[in-house]
């Protein structure tokens, strides 16, 4: 227990920069006298601790001091390298040199466990460039300006203070404070055009960032019962995973809540491989749409 407390005191001082003996005593639930004994033990171990008396004083560790690599467990070393691999997966700049240095320092070969490819099958690299520019804006606290095309159609020019990049439901989003709406908003990256990093910076305080909403966009959901032909099985299993039922003829059945805004376009994307079973109102509505579509192809 005492050895664990010594390490925690060192980590605390490295993290906070300074502390007083009463603060440490309260944090670790021991007496001030015990803290001073701990500090003597830490100093005897070769860690350069010094104290400053008076206002603004306290207990410090020399800023040149770094923890020995032996203080990290093998699991912690592996986790650090895996985290860097995750960062490298969405980096345009190379992190191979840093990974090589830390791998040599830790004597651990980090597993290349993740890969993210922003390009589509047509090798469009615009998504990666947009992501990289927004990431730079987040890190440097720079405002960005872009044209944004909302789901209802039409574009607006937005100036945004970017907070973070979020991956949700197969898409990347920018979360930030929109000066046009005077509120925090989500922006789907595929709808952002003509991005410009502005020279103005902004001060991001923790208190300024509200708790993230549980979903990217609150939409009215409709419970739908669908029947798919066996020919669509590859796509059905991709998109509905373990919610699929199958009958003796190989037809597939799914009951799912779907957003009203994209419901028709999604169902029609299956062509004649899908049939709406429920609700009746939606079934009639799609039938009417198909009738109007057929009218367009009479000649």
Which key phrases capture this entry?
single chain; about 300 residues; alpha+beta; Arc Repressor Mutant, subunit A; SH3 type barrels; five-stranded antiparallel β-sheet; four-stranded antiparallel β-sheet; 9 helices; elongated; DNA-binding transcription factor activity; DeoR_HTH; DNA-binding; transcription regulation; WH_DNA-bd_sf
Structural summary, described in words:
It is a single chain. A hairpin with a 5-residue loop joins strand 3 and strand 4. Helices cover 37% and strands 26% of the residues. It has four domains: 60 residues, Winged helix-like DNA-binding domain superfamily/Winged helix DNA-binding domain (Arc Repressor Mutant, subunit A); 38 residues; 73 residues, SH3 type barrels (Roll), CATH 2.30.30; 76 residues, Alpha-Beta Plaits, CATH 3.30.70. Helix 1 packs across helix 3, helix 2 crosses helix 3 and helix 4 packs antiparallel against helix 5. By secondary structure, the protein is α+β, with helices and mostly antiparallel strands.
Q: Helices and strands in order, then pairings?
A:
Blueprint lengths: L1 H15 L4 H8 L3 H13 L4 E4 L5 E4 L12 H16 L6 H11 L19 H15 L1 E8 L5 E14 L2 E8 L4 E6 L3 E10 L19 E8 L4 H8 L4 E2 L5 E8 H9 L5 E5 L1 H17 L3
Antiparallel strand pairs: 1-2, 3-4, 3-7, 4-5, 5-6, 8-10, 8-11, 9-10
Helix pairs in contact: 1-3, 2-3, 4-5
Quick recap:
The protein is of the alpha+beta class. It contains 9 helices and 11 strands. Strand 3 and strand 4 (155-168) form a beta hairpin.
Radius of gyration: 28 Å
Going across the biggest sheet, name each strand in turn.
6-5-4-3-7
CATH topology description of the largest domain: Alpha-Beta Plaits
Whole-Å distance between the termini? 86 Å
Mean pLDDT: 78
Shape estimate: elongated
The fraction of residues assigned to DSSP E strands is 25-35%
Fraction of residues in H or I helices: 25-40%
Can you count the helices? 9
| Secondary-structure element series | HHHEEHHHEEEEEEHEEHEH
User: Major β-sheet, in short?
Assistant: 5 strands, antiparallel
């Amino acid at each position: 227990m005492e050895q664990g407390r010594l390490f925690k005191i060192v980590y605390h001082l490295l993290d906070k920069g300074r502390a007083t003996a009463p603060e440490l005593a309260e944090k670790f639930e021991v007496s001030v006298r015990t803290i001073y004994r701990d500090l003597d033990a830490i100093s005897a171990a070769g860690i350069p601790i010094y104290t400053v008396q008076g206002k603004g004083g306290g207990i410090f560790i020399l800023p040149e001091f770094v923890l020995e690599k032996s203080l990290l467990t093998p699991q912690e070393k592996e986790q650090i390298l895996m985290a860097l691999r995750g960062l490298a997966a969405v980096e345009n700049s190379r992190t191979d040199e840093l990974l090589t240095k830390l791998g040599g320092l830790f004597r651990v070969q980090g597993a290349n466990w993740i890969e993210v490819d922003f390009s589509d099958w047509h090798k469009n690299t615009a998504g990666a460039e947009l992501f990289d520019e927004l990431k730079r804006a987040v890190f440097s606290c720079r405002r960005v300006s872009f044209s944004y095309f909302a789901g209802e159609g039409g574009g607006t020019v937005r100036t945004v203070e970017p907070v973070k990049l979020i991956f949700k439901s197969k898409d990347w989003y920018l979360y930030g404070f929109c000066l046009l709406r005077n509120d925090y908003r989500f922006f789907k990256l595929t709808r952002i055009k003509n991005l410009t990093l502005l020279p103005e910076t902004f001060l991001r305080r923790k208190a300024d960032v509200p708790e993230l909403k549980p979903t990217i966009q609150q939409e009215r959901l409709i419970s739908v019962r669908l029947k798919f032909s066996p020919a669509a099985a590859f796509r059905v299993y991709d998109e509905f995973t373990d919610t699929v039922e199958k009958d003796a003829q190989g037809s597939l059945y799914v009951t799912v809540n779907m957003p009203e805004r994209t419901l028709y376009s999604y169902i029609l994307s299956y062509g004649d491989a899908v049939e709406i079973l429920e609700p009746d109102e939606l079934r009639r509505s799609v039938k009417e749409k198909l009738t109007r579509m057929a009218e367009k192809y009479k000649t």
